[in-house]
């Protein structure tokens, strides 16, 4: 099967879940810059409206489709994808960026908390992929990129047991989907950042920030735009021979 080297205009539609966080916003900015039509999702309507307003003139009815739904609920996901396809455009690129954090150790993690974190970090990626993959396979082209985490490899340095374990499951989901979809020209990869410069990380106590920066060889946190640049590479038609990979972005904190 011959690889696709350039995308036609009708193929340049992407969906970003969890679009209002620092990583999601950076990816949306990148996609608009390279002239994609973008579906922006979040479960928080106020945050979604604020993000769209902040995009200003970059956002138009033709290139942006904001939608609020529960990405952990199968019926909500199915209804949203049907609406997107009929009202906006067919999605060829899926960025599974929706998720949540937890810093609780094992003895403080209830089963309800465990399920909440897994639903946000794993179920959402599974459900969106399950809904959109049949079309990608039928059209013989697609890209899925999952927001993974260094915590899947380390067990979490500053995160809790449910977060680290759920991200490990997301790594495995990435591998399984990549194996299943490769013959259809659909690639599935992950990007595993560590300590991105966000409002949450900048609120770390000074001693924690100093400790982290001491052990990160490059001596700084990751910029959201660096994450988006990696996503841009992975969704490129010329990255079609890369699938089932988790690209680490941790400044040398862990090397393998």
UniProtKB/TrEMBL annotation:
Enzyme Commission code: 1.1.1.100
Record carries keyword Oxidoreductase: yes
Matches recorded under Gene3D superfamilies: NAD(P)-binding Rossmann-like Domain
Keyword field: Oxidoreductase
PANTHER family: 3-OXOACYL-(ACYL-CARRIER-PROTEIN) REDUCTASE (PTHR42879), 3-OXOACYL-[ACYL-CARRIER-PROTEIN] REDUCTASE FABG (PTHR42879:SF2)
Family that this chain belongs to: Belongs to the short-chain dehydrogenases/reductases (SDR) family.
Name of this chain's protein: 3-oxoacyl-[acyl-carrier-protein] reductase
Organism taxonomic ancestry: Eukaryota, Rhodophyta, Stylonematophyceae, Stylonematales, Stylonemataceae
């Amino acid at each position: 099967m011959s690889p696709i080297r350039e995308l036609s205009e009708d193929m340049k539609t992407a969906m970003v879940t969890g679009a209002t966080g620092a990583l999601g916003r950076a990816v949306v900015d990148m996609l608009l810059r390279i002239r994609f039509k973008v579906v922006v999702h979040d479960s928080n309507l106020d945050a979604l409206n604020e993000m769209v307003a902040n995009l200003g003139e970059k956002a138009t009815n033709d290139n942006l489709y904001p939608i609020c739904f529960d990405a952990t609920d199968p019926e909500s996901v199915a209804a949203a994808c049907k609406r997107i396809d009929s009202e906006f455009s067919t999605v060829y690129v899926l960025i599974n960026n929706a998720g949540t954090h937890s810093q609780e150790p094992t003895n403080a993690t209830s089963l309800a908390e465990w399920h909440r974190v897994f639903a946000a970090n794993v179920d959402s990626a599974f459900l969106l992929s399950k809904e959109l993959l049949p079309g990608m396979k039928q059209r013989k082209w697609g890209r899925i990129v999952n927001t993974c985490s260094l915590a899947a490899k380390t067990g979490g340095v500053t995160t809790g047991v449910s977060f680290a374990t759920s991200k490990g499951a997301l790594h495995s989901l990435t591998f399984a989907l990549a194996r299943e979809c490769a013959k259809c020209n659909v690639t599935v990869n992950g990007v595993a950042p560590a300590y991105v410069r966000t409002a949450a990380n900048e609120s770390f106590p000074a001693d924690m920030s100093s400790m982290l920066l001491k052990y990160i060889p490059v001596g700084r946190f990751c910029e959201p735009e660096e994450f988006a640049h990696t996503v841009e590479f992975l969704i490129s038609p010329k990255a079609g021979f890369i699938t089932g990979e988790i690209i680490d972005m941790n400044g040398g904190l862990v090397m393998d």
